[in-house]
Amino acid sequence: MIKEEILQDNKTVEQIVDDMNLFDDDLMSMVFDGNIEATGLLLRIILKRNDITIISVVGQRELQSPIADGRNVRLDILAKDNIGKHYNIEVQKKPEGAHTRRARFNSSMMDSRMLKEGQEFSELRDSYMVFITQTDIFCHGLPIYTINRHFEEIDDVFDDGSHIVYVNGSYKGDDAVGKLMHDFGCKNSKDIYYPELAKGLKHFKEEEGGRKAMCEAVEKYAEKKVAMKVKEERNLMTQIVAALVADKDDDTIIKELNCTLEQIIPLRTVMGK
Description:
Blueprint: H1 2-6, H2 13-19, H3 25-32, H4 36-47, E1 54-63, E2 73-81, E3 86-92, H5 100-111, E4 127-133, E5 144-148, E6 150-151, E7 156-157, E8 162-168, H6 176-184, H7 195-206, H8 208-245, H9 250-257, H10 261-271
Parallel strand pairs: 3-4, 4-8
Antiparallel strand pairs: 1-2, 2-3, 5-8, 6-7
C-alpha cells in the first residue's frame, strides 16, 4: 500500500520510466555514469570552454563525512578531467534541493578528498559544483548563474579555485544552453538535439537491457522511500507517546511535532490519556 503511494499516484514502474527525463536524478545518473562523451559535452556547453577533456565519470557516488555522526552526501555525477579538476553535476526538480548552502557543502566534500597527506594546499585543483535546476530558482531569467569568490573592497577575484554554477532548466533560448535544457526535458530520444544524450536516453528507456536496469532502479528507490517513511512514522509515534506521557495537550503536540490530530487520537486512546 505504501509502496503504491510512493510510486506516484499508483503508476506502474513502466509508466514512471516512460515519464522520466534527464531532470530525474536516477535516469540522469545512469545516462551519464561512465559516459565521458556526454559529460564532456554538457560541461563544455555550460562552462563555455572547449578545452575540457573528461577522463572519468561516476554516477551516484557517495562521499562519507569525516566525522562519525556527520552527514554524508550522494552525488548525482562526479567527473574528473585530464588536469585533475573535479566536477559535481546535480539535477534538481525542486528549488530546496539546490539550496545555496548545499552547493557550499558539496564543494567542501569534494575539496576534502583531493589532497593526500604531505601535499601542499597550492596543489589543490579547481572544483566545479554545477546545479541543473528544472526551474529558474533565482528568477532573473538568465540561462546560467556563475558564482565565484571575490574581494569586496577591491575589484578583483579571490582565486581559490572553487566555482559554483546554476543552470536554469526552464531556459528556452535558441543557443547551445537552450538546446541542452530542451534535451533534458525530453522523454523520447527522437526529440533530442544532441546525439550524445539521445544515445543514453534511448538505451535506458527504449532498449530492453537498459530499460530493465532503469525499472529495477525505480523499484529500489520506491523500496528505499517506503523504508524511510516507515522509520519516520515510527519516530513520530515515539515522540507523540513521549509528549502524551508529559501530559501535553493536542494543540501543543501538533505545533511542536508538526503532526495531525488523527495521529494523536489512537495513541491517546491506547494510553488512556
